[in-house]
Structures are given as C-alpha cells and as structure tokens.
Sequence to fold (143 residues):
Amino acid sequence: METPFIIYIKAVGIYALITIPALGMPIMYFISMVYVLFYGWFAWAVFTIIYLVTVFCNPGFLSKMLILSIGVVVAVAVAFQMLEVLKVENNIWNSGAFLLFPLAAVFSGWISLSASTGRIRTANRNLLLNFPEGQMNDENNLN
Fold:
C-alpha cells in the first residue's frame, strides 16, 4: 500500500515548507525536522493502520476522508507523545509555543490528504474491482 506512504512523504515536505518561518531560530527548525524524520514514522504507522481499516471496511468516500482526517490528528498526537515515551522530551504537552509544531504537522497532513484524494479514490476503486476478479479466477482454477 503505497498510498499512505506517499501521503506521509508529501506531508513531511509540506511540513518543512510550513515551518520555514522557524528559521528565525535555525536550531529550533533543525530540531523540529530531526524529530519529524525520526519520530514521524510512528505517525506513518498509525495512519497506515487507519487507512487499511478504511480500505477493508469500505465506507463511502466522504466518510473515508473524514476518518482519515481524524486519523491525521491521532497519528500526529501519537508521534508527538512518543517523544515523551522514549524520554526525548519531558512533559511534552506543556511545551508552550512548541505546540505549534504538531499543529503544523496536522495541517501538513490535511493538505497532503486533500492533495491525494484522487489517489485514494482510485485505490479504493482498484481494490474493489480487482478483489472479486481474483476470487473468481481461484474458483475457476479449482473446477
């Protein structure tokens, strides 16, 4: 399933662009990008699981996009929390202005998700079209 990975990669690129104003303090921008590159994989894993659930449950397109939009928030929250779980930072949710970075990550995820609606729609259609055909071929081979 390359769709969640592509959405994640786009989101990281968008995040890098959105947080460019943090270059006013280059060390803050650098640390933010390192955290995204190291701990963003948790967000990717959570988002991929949510994406796979929506593929197999097959809700309508608007419902799927709503679930995935909420999934972006959940995935970013999990990745941000992992900074505290893995003892990189202490009391991460009380970090004041630094909470703007996960907010930027959520917006980046939403922008990336919105930019990938065509891919999501096509992936659903291809899954639905290919799955029954594969079953029919297996049944024909058994006879």
Remarks:
- Residues 2-131 form one domain.
- The mean pLDDT is 85.
- Residues 47 and 71 are 6 Å apart (CA to CA).
- The chain is about 80% helix and 0% strand.
